Amino acid sequence: MEASQFKSDQYVRFCPGCGDHAICMALQKAMAQIGIAPHEVAVISGIGCSSRMPHYLNTYGFNTIHGRGGAIATGVKTSHPELTVWQMSGDGDCLAIGGNHFIHEIRRNVDLNVCMFNNRIYGLTKGQYSPTSPKGFVSKSSPFGTVERPFVPAQLVLGAGGTFFARTLDVDMPTTVDCLVAAQQHKGCSIVECLVNCVIFNNGTHAWIADREQRAEHSIILKHGEKMIFGANKDKGLAVEIDPQTFVPKIVVVPADDPRVLTHDATQADPTLHRLLALMGQDRYLEANSQDLPEGKGDLPVALGVIRNVEAETYNDAVNKQIAEVREKAKAKTFDELTATLEQWTM
Amino acid sequence: MKNIVVRFCGDSGDGMQLTGNMFAQLAAEMGHEISTLPDFPAEIRAPQGTLGGVSAFQVELGSEVYTSGDKADVVVAMNAAALKVCALGSHFNHSQAQFDEEFSLFHKHAVVIVDTDSLADKDLEKAQYHTDNPFTELGLPESVQIVPVALTTLTKEALKDSGMDNKSVLKCRNMFALGLIYWLFDEPMEKAIHLLEEKFKKKPALVAPNTKVMVDGYNYGQNLALNVQQVRLEEVQGDKVQGIYTSIAGNKATAWGLIAAAEKAGKKLFLGSYPITPATDILHELAARKDMNVMAVQAEDEIAGVCTAIGAAFAGDLACTSTSGPGLSLKSEAIGLAVMAELPLVVIDVQRGGPSTGLPTKTEQTDLLQALYGRNGECPAVVIAASSSANCFDFAYEACKIALENMTPVILLTDTYLANGTALWRIPKLAELPAITPQSVPEELKGHYNPALRDERGVRYWAYPGMEGYEHRNIGLERDAAKGTISTNPENHEQMVLARKKKIEQIAERIPNLQIIKSSNPQMSGTLLVGWGSTEGHLHAAANELGCDLAHFNYICPLPKNTREVLSQYKRIIVCELNTGQFAAYLRAQFPELKIEQYNEIQGQPFAVERIVKFVQQN
To answer: What does the DSSP 8-state code read for residue A34?
Structure first.
């Protein structure tokens, strides 16, 4: 199929230069690559810039209310598991007002493909800090800097028992398409954190990795089964060290030819290593002015690509299976048969 | 005797709900009409023997039953606290209070069976008596017939050879009381035993001891020829439709109404819900009905309850959510989404005492204005109300029919009284229920469909994922009246607001006209009692007693088409509700030319018929 088949007739109204344009195109490409007909696809969103996405995709779409996309998508997928269901959400929609639905769709492992657009700001309401804004971040609603600790989305996903987590960057189209395709192919709740730039209210929030000169040094694209190697000259690798005193494992950068360089296994059930990988470079986003990070902090590359991809029974399969099993054995399957089972008498 | 009211009261752990239910069911099977009122504390187990832990179950049975009864004629009091709460009614925690028929839960000629083994000093102390003679202290008049029975001793005696431990033995006390009541009403023991076996089907070990105790209780009444008249009720006659009957609680009837509607409509039934008193039994019932292909999701919160349902509606299902007042507040925004997206959705609000957490286990009609208006923007939805435990079935069915045929949320109001109470229900066949024709989309719109396209009634066409050629984007934003896409155009918004309003108004064309229940007293013919929802039985009984007419509403928004015409025929209109006058205010707004009086009670209890009668006569 062609990406154009997934393009709606609506004029795309993201701000010029917004990272959402790229994700929109990546979604159309990924959907074409996956090859599921548009009428079998439902794209559900909440409120926010990213939640406008359904309007630009020629599938079934539902642009709902703030934070509730996850619950509505859960209803669609549970009642109609034959549909492919996407959820478009942002760092505010997903992690603040919709936080409860977010962790529960992950906990239940509903087979949804969730794009969580993270620009670390509320864009549509014109520039307030979000749950992923670094501490100290100055915005219209935090004129003296926030005093709040931010979420690292990956922590939340893995903490809720997530079976799939990927991270991608608006300016990296191939990785984004790969992540979206993998998210759709994964059976279960797939969370793709899309790092997007808000050109108006938070320009350059991901500059550390988005900057073309720096990207190869500051990020690593993880691929299942491949060695974890990065750097402009592919000269660096990642390994695990265990602190001899505290026994806390940590990721370290080693030369690419070091035999300790890890091979990425996204399918490993134990999330310990996935968590370490997903947290790499994230301390850079915990506090504003993090360019002055102390020695040893923030020098690990930010992991992009599919970090975790584990199979587990989905909620929608489990409930539908249970219904089928009960119905198989049931004596009464219609209303009239059901009422016949009541204690009853003639008057 | 036409009707009689029996009240079982005891400690929360004494099994009063079970006992009362068994008695009510047998009475119904013996051909009596019934209406029941479970009345229990919000706490699962308050400290044993205390006033706060008293749990009660009341049933009115007879040949013309409208309510569960104002006051009991026969009382079973399992302990000192129950005796006190029942004798003093709402004054039970006033110090020095004495029996006053106005407030008491039983009549001054009532028969009161008391467990004398539960009146020891420590029992009296726990129930906050100040003397060692509870009967004198409560000031019970001589007309009250006290029947002292050593229930505990007799139960132990009955089970002395059973090998059961003391705790298990004591749990059977309620069956002794039940046996005694069966004797009092001269009910056949074979049927009673059969019923007991049914009730304990899942715990077969309990059948034999409970049967033994119950039969001993019956024989105790028979042999000792207690100094009490056995009660004989008149045969049920009159206009009852012939058929097969069962007794059903309101919440179960509601759940089954949804099941029937889904099958009739050829839709899958989806329930998104979150546990909340007193609505949870609807979730329980539907979660158990996987045999009927029901998808019941216990969501992470009230909002997710309604939102999962909206997702299912978007995907083409018959989608419902069940809740009570606090949950309806939480769902408001999402119901607005369903109004805006024009999706069918059934919202069941089992009202309880409010505001906030309020009185979770008590009954009230205080969510009416919330149901009508409690959303942002101009946000019309259909509001209907059930008026008996049995017709919860019919109105749940009707809610689904209206929602599916008109692409709108329908809020069905029931309440604690209907939800937990039971009534006789004539079991219908699916074939005899009205047809449901869910809105669909004409074939010729394939390839040209958008979600703003409407039929001649103003109801938008329904296409959903999986249907090829109807792909579209639905929204909670305002949509263009022609194209269905986002629009902020001023004229378009007004046009859409009016289109949504008109869509609800046109439903009045297809709902039944308001029927008057006529009086027998020509002198009172200018007086009309008006009510809505669960108070129908009480108002019917009051209207009968007064000889005036009654107009009872099940359809609230829209109102029946003939409402103005009917109401304007009366000189005196008295709207009676369990709130401070919400329906009265609604009617005044619709019909400003009418003079409307109101009678209100807000005590968390159903109406007392005698108080309504007194109000109408004295004002």
So the answer is: H
